[in-house]
Design a protein that fits this description.
The complex is a heterotetramer of chains A (147), B (342), C (395) and D (113). Chain A has 3 helices and 7 strands. By secondary structure, chain A is of the alpha/beta class. Chain A has a single domain, classed as Beta Polymerase, domain 2, CATH 3.30.460.80. Chain C has a domain of 273 residues: Cytochrome-c3 Hydrogenase, chain B (Orthogonal Bundle), CATH 1.10.645. Chain C has 15 helices and 8 strands. In chain C, β7 and β8 form a beta hairpin. In chain C, α4 runs antiparallel to α11 and α6 packs antiparallel against α11. With 113 residues, chain D is α+β, with helices and mostly antiparallel strands. Classes of the chains: A alpha/beta (147), B mainly alpha (342), C alpha+beta (395), D alpha+beta (113). At the A-C interface, β3, β4, β5 and α3 of A face α10, β6, β7, β8 and α12 of C.
């Protein structure tokens, strides 16, 4: 049973009105990055969200977008937030969802977005002595002399 | 040469043949049923083990000479001794293992009722010699300087008693039946009273299961559990020394199975006194061989039907089931003897 | 022996793929686990940005060698959703068929691997023999055993003939019989029970806390199955049950997977009996309009979620893949703590890890060495020794 | 009943049965007809459109000048056998065959023109 879009609009009234839904099971919510933790908390307490599917980060030209995908009753609720390129950081949500620990390490690793408050920001997918920058940024160039 | 003849005379007394040529004694020691035969038979047992295991799993399995080819290949490979390894113990361990097994083998009554040399208590000597490869394994693993090797060595040492005690007790039960620690006496007794074999069936089962543990085969291959600690004590071994360890393992299987077939199944029994003497040897040898292979078959069936258990489970299995059952076996024998059944 | 650090991996017989679990042992007990991934990082997400959608079809497939089709279905569903097209019904049925066959082959493979991890090689060989039946069916339907190349954007590439249908149904009959026996063995063989019962406990609360997915959470009694929750392909029309157990241990994970095999057989029978007629593919434009889409499927290992951002060209702007193993990984550390060393392989195997899928993104060369250089053996060895020495490992 | 050695009866039966694996290359299994193996290229049907080379995900198929016309050349060293070229071809000039034994000694020997 998909979550009710009107219910989501109602509970998130105080945070944002930018809520889109093309199909019943996909909801996109855009929030400023300062309101991220508040939004997630509202979703958890009001809607009973328990499962974090993943975190996607991407280089959207002028800003970095970070998308948090939550799954509740078969509906994929995506919270979209963004951070400027000169200050690539978001609040870490691992206090609410400990399962985010690897996803946040991953976005830190490949895009250089710092999740503030994350206790363990070692490399995840790239080698520990990697110096080639952040490969998923659009301005990234592969090092010279690749195979 | 004189001493050989002396030994030989003592040995063949069972069949009533006197004054054998010392050359034959050498043949006995080196070719049949001595070192060379054990070597070939061990490799054959490994082949049988692998082939039947493969067939049970519906695979084709290795060709006949594969174990030999493996041995030759390993022997011709570079022999690496890790820097961290304790040189002497690490290199000597496989030699101890092989030497002990080959020595133990010579005491088994294979073609006649006695082995190369028979004396009171030879059963105990064979049991002790059979323990040396396990100790060599522990030392080799411990001194290899590798974490996995040490872990494996620890496991070898900690599991030692869980199978050695039931194995010792089970193998001593036929000795209790006969009242002698001499394998020649046990075999002769069994030849005289074939029904005595029935009494020790329980002991036979226990001995086979403990032998499985002794050989570190499934479900007791905990010391070298491949998916946990890679190869355990053998992790740093390579080339010749690994080949020797593997040969020791195969020979241990033959000697262990042979020992069980001697004390529980009557060894080369029924012994017929045929003329010339080598015919009766041959017959005894063939019977012994078949009995040994039967025990090996049991080992293979056990191996293919179970999963590996954990260290703690193995210890509790040994103390909860194997050892009490051996006491039951010994108790049965004492009662039967008390009432003069045998 | 005091505390020992045991490196399980990157190369270790318990792991079929290179990952590193550094296990701190106190005797035989595990006290701490540290996980390091990334050894098979291939840069697929980055690579996808430089390829057309058609080419990406085959790249996505190669994220994983086992659940490859779940990834392709996700990719095509994403692209179709951005395009706003509805694919023909028959195509949906065929996709569902291949998805379920893939689940069968993955679960059989897993059963075998689990058997191997606890040293039960005979079970391993028997289940893989059954798996071969599924593989032959997949080869018959798609033309290859592993990477099926079945999907096109807007449908599937190959149709199903009556002969194929008959063969699939025959195969299902055979598998049902064999799996009944496997189930009988798995829940009654004492040595398996000894190794699986009360091992790798994952309480439902912890499972939810770490957002675990798939059979791993279903074995902890959490009902979560994307096929039911958010039906894709033709799952909305098919009657089937979501299997859960509440034993929370490795045995539960075995039972869930074995019972799921029966469910898959049921689903495949239904599909074969109700296969609608019609086209299997429709024409779609090469250029995909601006838009974004999320698609998730219930891969054999759990929820597999993909995100696509399209920018109106022939190539995607960003493609994000999150494989089930990645979601289950944080839970492993919880399961391992306090268990025996001997349980480590089976506990790791119990989530059905597929490290290759997990590590997708990229790698050109070790960063500190000049990229493109061939590193000589002795330098590589010195580097390795240094690497381990820095982490306090004795080698 | 929960006992160790539950499989013993089956093991005993299988011990005397033929193995299910085959000794390749002495024995061979026949692959299904629609296997995606080595491709066959009908040059007379080719209209040099280059769609195959464009869609090839692994640069195995590239266009070269042959007898004054652009023709695809397939290098099987790179090929992933996805059959997208056969799919893309508007004139069905490319066909996948069931031939799968493609081992060769040197790089660049396995080429389909």
């Amino acid at each position: 049973m998909p979550a009710d879009i009107n219910r989501i609009k109602e509970i998130l009234q105080s945070v944002t009105t930018d809520i889109q839904s093309k199909t019943p099971t996909r909801v996109f919510v855009s929030v400023p990055r300062n309101d991220l933790i508040r939004t997630v908390n509202i979703l958890v307490s009001e809607l009973g969200v328990q499962h974090l599917s993943t975190i996607t980060a991407l280089d959207a030209g002028t800003v970095f977008e970070v998308l948090y995908h939550f799954l509740v009753n078969g509906t994929e609720i995506t919270i979209r937030t963004s951070c400027p390129k000169d200050d690539p950081s978001v609040e870490s949500i691992i206090n609410i969802f400990p399962g985010a620990v690897l996803y946040e390490r991953e976005i830190h690793d490949i895009l250089g977005i710092v999740p503030n408050g994350h206790p363990d920001l070692r490399r995840l997918v790239l080698p520990e002595d990697w110096v080639g920058g952040y490969p998923l940024r659009k301005d990234w160039k592969p090092p010279e002399g690749k195979e | 040469m004189g001493s050989f003849a002396c030994v030989w005379n003592q040995m063949v007394r069972g069949t009533g043949v006197e004054n054998i040529d010392p050359v034959l004694a050498l043949i006995y020691l080196l070719i049949f049923p001595g070192v060379f035969f054990l070597f070939a038979f061990s490799l054959f047992t490994e082949y049988m083990d692998r082939k039947l295991y493969a067939r049970i799993q519906r695979r084709v399995g290795p060709p006949f000479l594969q174990p030999f080819a493996d041995l030759v290949k390993l022997a011709s490979k570079e022999d690496i001794i890790p820097e961290k390894a304790e040189g002497f113990m690490f290199t000597a361990a496989p030699l101890f293992a092989v030497a002990a097994i080959f020595a133990a083998y010579l005491y088994l009554p294979i073609v006649t009722t006695t082995g190369l040399h028979s004396f009171n208590g030879d059963l105990v000597v064979v049991l002790y010699l059979l323990m040396i490869p396990t100790l060599a394994m522990f030392l080799g693993g411990w001194y290899s300087g590798n974490v996995f090797g040490q872990k494996g060595g620890m496991r070898v040492a900690s599991l030692l008693f869980s199978y050695e005690i039931p194995f010792f007790l089970a193998l001593l039960s036929p000795a209790l039946v006969e009242g002698s620690w001499k394998m020649a006496d046990i075999v002769s007794f069994q030849q005289a009273h074939p029904l005595a074999l029935v009494v020790t069936v329980l002991g036979f089962g226990i001995a086979v299961v403990s032998l499985q543990g002794k050989l570190e085969r499934l479900p007791f291959d905990i010391p070298e559990a491949e998916t946990e600690i890679v190869a355990g004590p053998l992790v740093e071994y390579s080339g010749r020394r690994l080949a020797l360890f593997r040969l020791a393992r195969d020979a241990e299987m033959v000697v262990g199975a042979g020992l069980i077939s001697v004390v529980f199944l009557g060894g080369p029994m029924p012994l017929l006194s045929l003329q010339p003497v080598y015919l009766s040897w041959a017959l005894g040898g063939v019977i012994f061989l078949l009995k040994t292979l039967f025990v090996v078959l049991l080992l293979i069936l056990i191996k293919s039907a179970v999963a590996r258990i954990r260290t703690d489970q193995m210890i509790s299995f040994a103390y909860k089931w194997l050892i009490p059952l051996t006491f039951v076996q010994i108790f049965i024998i004492i009662i039967i003897r008390y009432f003069g059944g045998i | 022996m005091a505390r020992v650090k045991l490196p399980i991996g990157p190369q270790h017989p318990a792991l079929k793929e290179p990952e590193n679990f550094t296990i701190t042992l106190d005797g035989e007990r595990v006290v701490d686990v540290d996980i390091r991934i990334g050894y098979t990082h291939r840069g697929i997400e980055k690579l996808m940005e430089s390829r057309t959608y058609t080419q990406n079809l085959y790249l996505v497939e190669r994220i994983c060698g086992i659940c490859s089709y779940a990834h392709v279905v996700n990719f095509t569903q994403n692209v179709e959703s951005v395009l706003g097209v509805q694919i023909p019904k028959r195509a949906e049925y065929i996709r569902t068929l291949v998805l379920e066959l893939e689940r069968l082959h993955s679960h059989f493979l897993w059963l075998g691997v689990a058997g191997h991890e606890i040293g039960f090689d005979t079970l391993f060989m028997y289940t893989w023999q059954d798996r071969e039946v599924v593989q032959d069916l997949l080869e018959l339907i798609s033309g290859n055993r592993v990477n099926y190349a079945m999907n096109a954007i807007g449908g599937v590439r190959r149709d199903l003939s009556d002969d194929h249908r008959k063969k699939v149904l025959e195969g299902m009959d055979y598998l049902e019989k064999r799996t009944a026996y496997d189930k009988e063995v798995a829940i009654n063989e004492k040595t398996i029970l000894a190794r699986a019962e009360n091992v790798g406990i994952l309480k439902p609360k912890i499972a939810l806390k770490y957002s675990a997915v798939g059979p791993t959470v279903r074995a902890s009694g959490v009902t979560m199955d994307i096929r039911k929750d958010d039906p894709y392909a033709s799952y909305a029309e098919i009657p089937f049950d979501v299997i859960t157990t509440d034993t929370c241990d490795v045995l539960g994970r075995i039972v869930v997977r074995v019972l799921e095999v029966f469910e898959s057989i049921k689903i495949i029978r239904y599909l074969m009996e109700h296969l609608p007629a019609g086209d299997v593919v429709m024409k779609v434009p090469r250029k995909i309009p601006v838009g974004e889409s999320i698609s998730h499927t219930e891969a054999p290992r759990g929820e597999d979620i993909h995100y696509l951002r399209a920018n109106g060209t022939e190539r995607p702007d960003r493609y994000k893949v999150r494989t089930p193993t990645m979601a289950n990984l944080p839970a492993i550390a919880e399961m391992l703590k306090g268990s025996y060393l001997a349980d480590v392989p089976i506990v790791i195997a119990a989530i059905d890890p597929c490290m290759g899928c997990m590590d997708r993104v990229l790698l050109l060369k070790e960063g500190s060495e000049t990229p493109g250089d061939i590193i000589p053996w002795d330098r590589l060895r010195a580097y390795g020794i240094k690497w381990y020495a820095e982490r306090g490992w004795k080698i | 009943m929960k006992v160790p050695g539950k499989m013993l009866p089956k093991i005993w039966v299988y011990m005397f049965k033929k193995p299910v694996t085959v000794c390749y290359p002495k024995q061979r299994l026949t692959p299904p007809k629609n296997l995606r193996g080595k491709m066959k290229f009908y040059i007379e049907r080719c209209i040099s459109c280059g769609l195959c080379a464009r869609d090839c995900p692994s640069t195995a198929c590239q266009m070269y000048e042959i007898d004054g016309k652009k023709r695809p050349v397939f290098d099987l060293d790179y090929c992933t056998f996805c059959a997208q070229c056969a799919e893309s071809c508007p004139k069905d000039a490319i066909e996948m065959t069931a031939e799968f034994e493609l081992a060769h000694y040197k790089k660049g020997e396995a080429i389909v023109k």
